[in-house]
Structure formats: C-alpha cells, structure tokens
Design a protein that fits this description.
The chain is α+β, with helices and mostly antiparallel strands. The protein is 47% helix and 20% strand. The protein has helices at 87-90, 94-100, 112-131, 139-159, 168-183, 192-199, 203-214, 218-235, 244-250, 256-267, 271-276; strands at residues 8-15, 18-25, 29-34, 39-45, 49-51, 54-56, 61-64, 69-74, 78-86, 106-108. Strands 1-2-9-4-7-10 form a six-stranded antiparallel β-sheet. A four-stranded antiparallel β-sheet has the order 3-8-5-6, with no helix packed on it. α3 packs antiparallel against α4 and α5 crosses α7. The radius of gyration is 21 Å and the shape is globular.
Length: 281
C-alpha cells in the first residue's frame, strides 16, 4: 500500500475513568510524543517493533508513566491498542503510589496469558460497544468492565515482579476479614475495589487471599452473585416489560455473549428462556 492510499480504522470508547483505543493502520508507522501528566498509558501492538528502543511483540505490553516520552516503531501492518488510566485509579494507596513514582517507561514482562487477557478485554469491550451502543449508556456495565480491566492491568504489574512483600502475612489476615464482611452483605453490588477498601488492604493482596481462602478470585465470586441476581430479576419480569440486555447491563454484565454462556452453564437454560417463563413473585 502506498502512502498516497492510507487505509486505517480507529475505535475508541470511554469506560468510567478509562479511555480505550484500537486501530489498524495500512503501513509502517513511527510515533513519538509524551503521555498526559496524570494518566498511565498501556500500549500493545500485534506485530514486532520497538518502544523506546525495547523490542516488543504481541506477547508484551509497553507501559508509560504520566509525563513520559515515547517512540514507537513498527515496520509491518500496524495494529495496536492503548488504554489510558488515571494514576489515582491504578495506584489507589500511598504505598503503591510511592513505588510507582520511580517507574519508567518499560516493557511489562508478564506471562503471555496475562497479556492475552488484558488485550482481549479491550477488544471485546470495543466490539460489544459497537454491536450494542446502549452499553455505553449503562454505568453498571461500564463499571464492571473497568474493574475487570484494572484487575488485568494490576496482574501485568504483579506478573512482572518476583519479590514477595514483607507485609503479606498482615495483609492476608486483614483480607480474610474483608472477605467475611463481604459474604455477610450480599445485597450490595460490590466491586473488588469495594472489598479492598472495606478491609483496608491493597487490592492485589485481597485477590491473593481470596484465592487461598476460597479457591476463586473475588471477581469470580462477585460475578456468580450477580448471575443469581440476574436470575431473580428475570424470573420476576415479563418479556413485554424488559429485556435480557437491559437486565444484564443493569447488573454490570457488559459482554452479552459471556453473560449468556455463564448463565447457561450455571442454571442450565438461556436467560431468554428464564424471562419467557411465567412470572414468579
């Protein structure tokens, strides 16, 4: 493709405090610039190239702190995505913020499955927003996605580090207390961040403690709880009063395909089948 025939597409969306972008450009690209003064940028491209002189490929994510400079190079068809996250959202505690203040732009060397999870979430959300524009009008659905993506971003950081924290034992004990508190208050639509704040512990430690205590992540537990909430709402509604989409988005499920699959796996029927059954008060 010649430079005189540019062929490219760009998708963008906002989910809570996050800004997402995905693009496909028709030729080789060199991009230079600087990040915002209050946001971190996560960048991924589908073909090999360089970011600030470091070799990157589809298995890696390049992260640039606020106010950082970048130089991105790709010589093949340039497919990329980026996520912009406010510093206060990515590092809510002063301990994490202090650690992050010394971080420079670099390639996150996490396990490949962590990178795939992060990029898949971005692509699926943008695809879902394109197919169902009402997703962007649902605060609950966007908040649910924001929690998932922040968890994946934190996993990228955690997976790139190997030294255990000396505070782990104390944080683990406090996390167990937060878990017990959350399990005794199931009527609230809690996020993983809510659980961490209730327990007064870092979110990453809460996820580790939850896995050790109950064998599932806090996100998986909360998702199961919301599925049961969806079933109660569907059984109490009529098809001429509401839709599966409205109920799902209202409870924070932003990916309708995954919602339907998880619902069927848990209850043995599709959400639409539950909604069509006689109302049960």
């Amino acid at each position: 493709r010649s430079l005189g025939e540019p062929q490219w597409t760009l998708q963008s969306a906002t989910a809570g405090s996050l800004e997402l972008r995905q693009a496909h450009e028709g030729g080789g690209t060199i991009a230079e610039g600087a990040t915002d003064s209050h946001r971190w940028t996560f960048y991924h491209q589908s073909h090999a190239g360089r970011a600030n002189g470091q070799v990157i490929d589809e298995s890696s994510v390049f992260v640039d702190p606020p106010g950082g400079e970048f130089c991105l190079v790709c010589h093949e068809s340039h497919e990329w995505l980026s996520v912009h996250v406010p510093t206060s959202v990515l590092f809510p505690s002063w301990q994490e913020l202090e650690l992050a203040s010394s971080v420079k732009a670099h390639r996150l060397k996490a396990a490949p499955h962590m990178t795939r999870r992060f990029t898949s979430l971005v692509r699926r959300f943008l695809s879902s927003a394109e197919s169902h524009p009402q997703l962007l009008d649902s605060p609950a659905a966007k908040a649910s996605f924001e929690n998932e993506l922040l968890e994946a971003a934190n996993d990228l950081f955690t997976g790139s580090q190997h030294s255990p924290s000396r505070h782990f034992v104390r944080w683990h004990r406090e996390s167990k207390s937060a878990v017990e508190l959350a399990m005794g208050d199931l009527d609230q639509s809690l996020s993983v961040l809510d659980l961490a704040r209730q327990g007064g512990v870092p979110e990453r430690t809460l996820r580790t403690a939850f896995q050790k205590c109950y064998g599932v992540s806090p996100a998986e537990y909360l998702r199961s709880h919301r599925l049961h909430q969806a079933r109660r709402a569907l059984r109490a509604s009529c098809p001429d009063e509401t839709t599966v989409t409205k109920i799902a988005f209202g409870l924070g499920f932003w990916d309708l395909g995954r919602f339907a699959g998880a619902y069927h796996q848990l209850f043995g029927e599709r959400p639409s089948e539950t909604l069509r059954k006689p109302v049960r008060r």
